[in-house]
Amino acid sequence: MADWRLNTQMSRHFTGEGDLIKLLEKLKMVARLQKIEDVVILVPLYLEGEALTIYQQMRDEDKGDLASVEQRLKLAFAESPLEALGKLASLRWTGESVDVFAAEIKRLAGLAGYVGRSLNMTVKLYLVNGFPEEISANMQRITEINTMKVDDLLVHARVLVKNVKDQIMAAAVSGNTCTRPHLNDERQAEWNV
After folding, report:
1. 39 and 23 share one domain
2. Predicted local confidence at residue 3, as pLDDT
3. CB distance 24 to 70 below 8 Å
4. How far is CA 28 from the centre of its chain?
5. Quick one: which of 186, 170, 190 has its CA closest to 178?
6. CA 31 – CA 149 distance, rounded (Å)
7. What domain range is 163 assigned to?
């Protein structure tokens, strides 16, 4: 085992509220960076409240198995595949960065049970269709869209989003009106000039 020091006060503890999947991914990433082979020893350090209670009620042999701990915590606190699919179906871009939007699509698709190639295709489909009509239509015109990787599609999406923002800014400066994508109230202020 590597020599490491961990300050659990620097990270939020999981109580049952929030994103369990992100916490587990973060723990695995920290363990990998610190060369900690047994990730499961980190889990109880970041649990409080209901989450810690669930962990404490597990059998000792299951507490030592990361897959068992993950499965039990996901069963108690993660979105079900149906919940994730429902959120995915209604997910629309609201002005956040393209990468954040794509990450949320990927997270929900993964929770809904998509893996491997079907996960990548699902991310591409929902990414293209989750944007406002102008951006979505331009993305659908990309000839190699069916064979391109998600990262390559993100490059196209970033350019299209920037172009739309530039058009809105140019219209505002010239005094013309410009149709803007539908944004929620939180993101609307970023588009106002």
Report:
1. yes
2. 47
3. yes
4. 16
5. 170
6. 29
7. 81-191
Q: How does pLDDT run across 120-134, given as a tens digit for each residue?
A: 999 999 999 999 998
pLDDT at 191 over 50: no
Do both 100 and 185 map to the same domain? yes
pTM score over 0.85 = no
100 neighbors 92 (Cβ within 8 angstroms) = no
Same domain, residue pair 22 and 92: no
What's the rounded Cα separation, in Å, for the pair 147 and 165? 28
What is the count of structural domains for the chain? 2
Which tokens in the block code for residue 57?
């009620």
**What is the residue type of 153?**
L
Q: Are residues 150 and 114 in the same domain?
A: yes
Pick 124 or 188 by higher pLDDT. 124
Same domain, 33 and 111: no
